[in-house]
């Protein structure tokens, strides 16, 4: 390395003098404390209760469906998020219902009726191959060879874990993404007592598993909003299931919010569809 190069490197490491106005400004990053303050300010301005089924009297959530005996919850919950977000983005002018069967039968990123990951379907599959309307591949509820009709597909522009990475999620980040962008897809752990749910705010009452850094989950669902119980003051998520309208609260359930109940706040997925 020659002396001239060393001199230039040393000079570039310091502010340069502008002959007209004095020292030039250096772009600076805000401090972590400032970023935290801004985030807390945004969160404090969020509504205390919110539900995309009723925003000033308008419903932006697609109907509850029934996955049947096929383990396709990941497909139903992922596609339900895209359906709702398209409604929101287009002021309900695009009310397409997507095909879980296309995912079950055609996706190489999942295991059909044996399960899959919402992040991969709502994100990578929808971005690479697109979501197919239901009428182009009606739901069969079982594994089958891939045989969809040739129809227009809807794609995803970008997708992410809420919080930026697996496990980086929390209640406030989820609330912010829900209000700003629409319902989010989540996964949580279903215990036997959940199967008996018929109404109210659910929390697991049995003996769960021990600590697991990978967040034990086995069911994908869609969070459409959040609320607070007027009597108990308990906070809850409003969740759309895929077990039909005869189950729970007309196909929905409420679950404790702010405590990562059954790991439901561990891996929310957010995706932005292209209308």
From TrEMBL:
Can you supply a Gene Ontology BP term from the record?
proteolysis
Q: Which sequence ranges are marked TM in the entry?
A: none
| Span of domain Peptidase C1A papain C-terminal | 46-272
Q: Which UniProt keywords apply?
A: Disulfide bond, Hydrolase, Protease, Thiol protease
Biased composition of type Polar residues is found at 27-36
Gene3D superfamilies cross-referenced by the UniProt entry: Cysteine proteinases (3.90.70.10)
**Does the record's keyword annotation contain Cytoplasm?**
no
State the family it belongs to: Belongs to the peptidase C1 family.
- This protein is called Dipeptidyl peptidase 1
Species in which this protein is naturally found: Caerostris extrusa
Tell me the gene name: CTSC
């Amino acid at each position: 390395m020659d002396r001239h190069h060393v001199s230039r490197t040393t000079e570039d490491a310091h502010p340069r003098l502008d002959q007209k106005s004095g020292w030039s400004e250096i772009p600076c990053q805000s401090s972590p404390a400032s970023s935290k303050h801004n985030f807390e300010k945004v969160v404090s301005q969020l509504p205390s209760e919110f539900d995309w089924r009723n925003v000033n009297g308008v419903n932006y959530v697609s109907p509850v469906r029934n996955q049947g005996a096929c383990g396709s919850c990941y497909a139903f919950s992922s596609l339900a998020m895209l359906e709702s977000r398209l409604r929101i983005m287009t002021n309900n002018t695009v009310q397409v219902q997507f095909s879980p069967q296309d995912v079950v039968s055609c996706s190489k990123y999942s295991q059909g009726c044996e399960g899959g990951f919402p992040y991969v379907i709502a994100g990578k599959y929808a971005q690479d191959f697109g979501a197919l309307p239901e009428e182009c591949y009606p739901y069969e509820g079982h594994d089958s060879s891939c045989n969809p009709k040739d129809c227009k597909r809807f794609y995803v522009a970008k997708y992410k874990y809420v919080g930026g990475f697996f496990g980086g999620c929390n209640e406030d980040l989820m609330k912010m993404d829900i209000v700003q962008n629409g319902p989010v897809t989540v996964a949580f752990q279903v215990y036997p007592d959940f199967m008996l749910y018929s109404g109210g705010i659910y929390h697991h009452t049995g003996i769960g598993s021990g600590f697991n850094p990978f967040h034990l989950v086995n069911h994908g669902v869609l969070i459409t909003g959040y609320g607070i119980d007027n009597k108990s003051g308990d906070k809850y998520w409003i969740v759309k299931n895929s077990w039909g309208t005869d189950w729970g609260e007309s196909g929905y359930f409420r679950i404790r919010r702010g405590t990562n109940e059954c790991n439901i706040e561990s891996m929310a997925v957010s995706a932005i569809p292209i209308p």
